[in-house]
Amino acid sequence: MKLATYQDGSRDGQLVVVSRDLSTAHYAAGIVNHLQQALDDWNFVSPQLQDLYETINQGKARHAFPFDPQRCAAPLPRAYQWAQGNAFTGLAQPLQPEPALQIEPSDAFWGPCEDIAVDSKSVGIDFAASLAVITGDVPRGVDAEQALEGIRLFLLANTLTAHPHRHPSLATAFSPVAVTLDELEAAWQNGRVHLTLQTHWNGRKVGLCDTGSDMRLHFGQLIAHLCARRPVRAGSVVGSGPVCSPGVADAKGRLQWPKGYHSIAEKRAIEALQDGQASTGFMQFDDTVRIDMKDLQGQSLLGAIESCLVPTQR
Fold first, then answer.
1. CATH number of 78-311
2. How do 65-66 and 24-27 pair as beta strands?
3. Which residues of the chain have pLDDT under 50?
4. What is the domain partition of the chain in residue ranges?
5. Could you read off the pLDDT of 23-65 as tens digits, one per residue?
């Protein structure tokens, strides 16, 4: 099923169930009010949400309405924790033999279509397209395969950071919709999503990456690492870290990056290797970033993140 959260002035928003084609939605208020409630009692609540989802897809939901991503908050507007991993390896992300997780601020996430405001004195603002999952309760000490059982939902993320000090992040926006793993169909294999992530910067396509074949560490490994010393509670968000792909050699042995990039840091690292210095600048105010993923039928799976960078009003 596909779930989203409509903004209603509250901290946690109002949970809605969204049709498979993202055209219609229905409030879940007769079942639960917001997503954290569903995660806390998933085994009892999710079958009821699934029934509503099937009714919507059959066109039989009496109070369905057109789905509007502009009204969406992040599917989980605030989380118990937000941990970013190192699932992909690129020039800006050196290879590490073990999972490494960075705990990021999680008290307030940005909606998929909200302008993201940062201090006008901030410099070197970068975007980073990534994958993420929302977990249920996961016990301490599970292995990577067991950890996969704790995944409840999959979604996309865009994290804004300021270079050279990338942590903590300035803001994170998530896709309008989060989906259960069965919605991924054959694309979900061994903790990886074998679909194409598309990133546009100011309307120009800059990244087109297969997030399955290029993912070095799968989500089970990231979650197991997070659970090594303490349990993870329902409503935790675990991210892949910036998506990127390794370079490939052309006929003359020179490295090329035909799949582009999903963060400016990666693009600058490529330029530094090829040309001796980076030439691409970081984001400016009014820059836009659009991140989307197509399903196996070529349709948007989760709706697009469409972020615009604006200065904080003082």
1. 3.90.850.10
2. antiparallel
3. none
4. 1-73, 78-311
5. 999 999 999 999 999 999 999 999 999 999 999 999 999 999 9
